[in-house]
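During the second half of the funding period, the structural biology subgroup turned its attention to how the target accommodates small molecules. The most pressing case was NDP, which had performed well in the primary screen but for which no bound structure existed. We therefore specified the complex as follows and requested a full 3D prediction, including the ligand pose.
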Amino acid sequence: PSMAVNMESLEEDFRQQNKSCFILGATGETGRLLLKELLDRNLFSKITLIGRREVTFEDKAYEKLIQEVVDFEKLEDHATAFQGHDVGYCCLGTTKAKSGAEGFVRVDHDYVLKSAELAKAGGCSQFHLESSKGADKGSSFLYLKVKGQVEAEIEALGFDRLSIYRPAVLLVERQESRPGEWMARKVLSSCSFMFPSMSVPIQAVTRAMVSNTVLKPEHPTEILENKAIHTLGASPTK
Ligand code: NDP
């Protein structure tokens, strides 16, 4: 059978299991598209957004969503928000430019790790973490070091399954303005066919995350580097 047919039947099997998931960072660029992809493919019978603010959606497709508004500084008080989900997706993150070095560590490390802990304690068996190309706990760059640390610490929590995605620069028309990234993206997207290792369309990341959810990995922890994201996340019509 072709891969497309196989994927369809895997998705159908998954759908039959009436699973529930949560998304962290669903208001961000990746998270928003991930949510759309999950709704389009209808894999879950229940989707919960966990975030610091409530969001309003116009589209009818979004009306069944559950929203949990939490204070990330007191996540312990919101343990119930993390209970009873089969799968968790994390697209949370900030930057040093936006939040300072300390703020970056707080969000990209502390909030992410605590959320994973609460999810694990609440019965979640699969965790999908959007990390970054070059993540390495031994790196001397704060960004890559923090990404690597949080990967390792979440791995130690012992989920039945942990999938780590390490995209390069995300190609997306960002809603907020980040001039440096904008320039990099302009350059990268115009030569992304020549240098696919330096960037990845955001749709490829979210498609890869969703497709991968229904696949059976060989090991409890798997890392999808940028190249694997390109492959798994390639548009089916391409
Ligand atoms: P965005 O910046 O678009 O979205 C970030 C999300 O995190 C939003 O939902 C935002 O919520 C939430 N968030 C940020 N700060 C806080 C906070 N203090 N408290 C609670 N929630 C917060 O993210 P991207 O989609 O660009 O990136 C997602 C992940 O991918 C990040 O971890 C990033 O490091 C990583 N990555 C990004 C790359 C890139 O090129 N941009 C490349 C490789 C990896 P709110 O809407 O309320 O602010």
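Two results from this model are relevant to the next phase. The mean pLDDT is 93. The longest strand covers residues 46-51.
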